[in-house]
Each structure stands twice: as C-alpha cells, then as structure tokens.
Amino acid sequence: MFRDESERIIRKARQIEQSKSVLIQENLTISRRSPTPPSESNLLTSSLCPISISHPLSRPINELGANFFFAKYTFSEHPFSSDYHDWLTQSYFEDAPNHVLRAAIEAVGMAGISNVFHAPHVASKSKERYCEALAAMKQALNDPVQAIADTTFMAVILLGLFEVPQAP
User: Fold this and answer.
1) I need a surface site. Which of 57, 61, 110, 137 has the fewest CB within 10 A?
2) pLDDT tens digits, residue range 133-161?
3) Which residues are within 8 A (CB) of 92 and not within 5 positions of it... i.e. 6 or more apart?
C-alpha cells in the first residue's frame, strides 16, 4: 500500500523554513538593539541554520577523469621513472583539447571513476569520451607524422586499457 505524503512533507518543509527565518530575524533584531556581541546561544542558533550554496563547486568530469588517471594509473617510483610520468603529463597539457592522447587519458580516468564509485552516469560520459578518442585516433593514424608519434602509440595502449573488462 502506497501513500502520497507530498503535501505533508511540503507543509513540514515550509514550517521549518519559517522557523528558521523567525530565528534569523530575532538574531538580527537583538544584534541591532545592542552594540554588544551576540550571546553564545544566539550564535549557536544561527549556526544551526544551514547555509545553502546556490551553485555547487565542481570540476568538469573530464578533468576529474584526468586527475583520477594521473593519481591512480601513473607512477614515478621504481621500476618506472619520473621521466615517463613527466612526459605523459606534459604531453597531456601540450596537446589540443581534442587530441587523441588527451581524450584517451580522460576516457580511461572517467571509466576508473565509474568503476570505483559505481557511477553509471560517469560510465556513459567515459564511453562518449572513448568514442571521441577513437575518432581522433583514426584521424591521427591517417596523418603520416602523427601515426608514428609517441603520443599516438601511448594513446593506443591507453585505449586498450579502456577495453579491458573490469572485475565484478
């Protein structure tokens, strides 16, 4: 049996909002009347009212994917060298936003995020970025200079990582 509790919840939320605004108004009135600092109880009451952030603070998912990739999938310790990590990072930042290596790094990183945090919405974004990386790879392989570039080779390896099935 299901009950529609929408109206009751809406009324309850409005009552809470009204009581918050009354407390805030009382605190403002008290602070205007006396030049002394507000009492500890007034500070406690005003601190209980949550502050809402109108816009959430976040980074684009492709940047989060790249950060995840560099944090989890690259190493500068033995047996790897710091040159590898530095080269990969530099190549990521030097290339145009639609370059194959950048797209591959972001796709693999977003896939890692979706697997670790069980986030299907990130998985779909990673697949979109993977498709963009495949299109960029096709374009790079058709260019004789880019086809033999180290960044193209690294992107091929990374796109292979994207294809590896994840353990359940």
Assistant:
1) 57
2) 999 999 999 999 889 998 999 999 999 88
3) 66, 70, 101, 102, 105
